[in-house]
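Dihydrodipicolinate reductase: structure, please.
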Amino acid sequence: MSIRVIQWTTGHVGREAVKGILRHPELELVGCYAWSDSKIGQDVGTLCGLAPVGISASGDIDALLAIDADCVCYMPTFPDIDEVERILASGKNVVSSYFINARSWGNDVQSRLQKAAETGNVSLFGSGIFPGFANFVAAIMAQASYGFKKIRFLESVDLSHYEAFANYANLGWGQTPSDQWRDTSEQVLGTYSECIDVIASLLNVPVSGIRFEYEHATTPNDREFFGFPLPAGSIAGQKCRWIGSVGNNDVIELEVVWNAGKGLEPEWPVRHGYTMEIDGDPQIHTRVKFIPSESQMQGGRPADLANVVTAMPVINAIPAVCAAAAGIQTYADLPLIKPYYTPD
Ligand SMILES: NC(=O)c1ccc[n+]([C@@H]2O[C@H](COP(=O)([O-])OP(=O)(O)OC[C@H]3O[C@@H](n4cnc5c(N)ncnc54)[C@H](OP(=O)(O)O)[C@@H]3O)[C@@H](O)[C@H]2O)c1
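Here you go.
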């Protein structure tokens, strides 16, 4: 029997999630929530650039929660905690691209979500690429060493090809540099720090403290990406580091380096992907880089792959999440998630 899934919004990541649900042999799309009025009533296939699938997007949350569905794939720009609580309490599992364990949202929110999941006897799981799947890859690499002292993880990308560029507006991009953007980044990007909890749990690291470091880069000239203006002198890049330590030893280091094009001040090197290093016996180094497939090149939207690699770890996890015990689940709790062999 299929696992019945409702897609919650069809933005950049949500559109790829819909394609992933339709192609997944265990999943069936049974509904779709639209936040934008203009999308309500439209066929979900059409909204995702596909042929119609016979399911219309709806803005009626009560009607959607009344659908006999197993799981909601929750992908709005920001989560609405009341909404997630309602979905869970209605007995639907939730998978999301903006969730790890809610520790950074505070005890109150975390326990509300845990309680709602227990009430509905369902679970809540979040992934994506980072935060999410890439951290899991980094953690499991350590298996091949006698032991390890440190794990370093770096996401380094040029965002000038990223269609969801406006997602960086709330981090101060396009604004005059000021200390407030450090604090905003620490708060808005809190789910990144939660990945330290997951890695620590997977690798038995007794983390005693987590700290955050931030630097920004500015653009020397006016520039614009996907209609988003970055005036000369404004923030057009940032480096953030989350460090989990055990006493005085820094053990888990997660870093992002995001640039909007070349020629920023300072100009950090762009490594186009993920670099992971285990400082152990032996040392283990891995690079994960995503390359557009032939069909993505032919479709003329190679940059969409950033949304695919965000959506698919979430979609592939649905069977395991629906089978898991009630409550908040992470990669440290779920069994190994297996993708499907899908010949043409
Ligand atoms: N973990 C990762 O690796 C990773 C990577 C990238 C993104 N993300 C996260 O994934 C989520 C989706 O990203 P995205 O790029 O797809 O986002 P997006 O395209 O900007 O927005 C997703 C949808 O959110 C709805 N929306 C827009 N403004 C809203 C508002 N003010 N209140 C409520 N809903 C609103 C819209 O729904 P309609 O479709 O109905 O119009 C929109 O299509 C975000 O939370 C993002 O941070 C995670």
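Notes: The radius of gyration is 20 Å.
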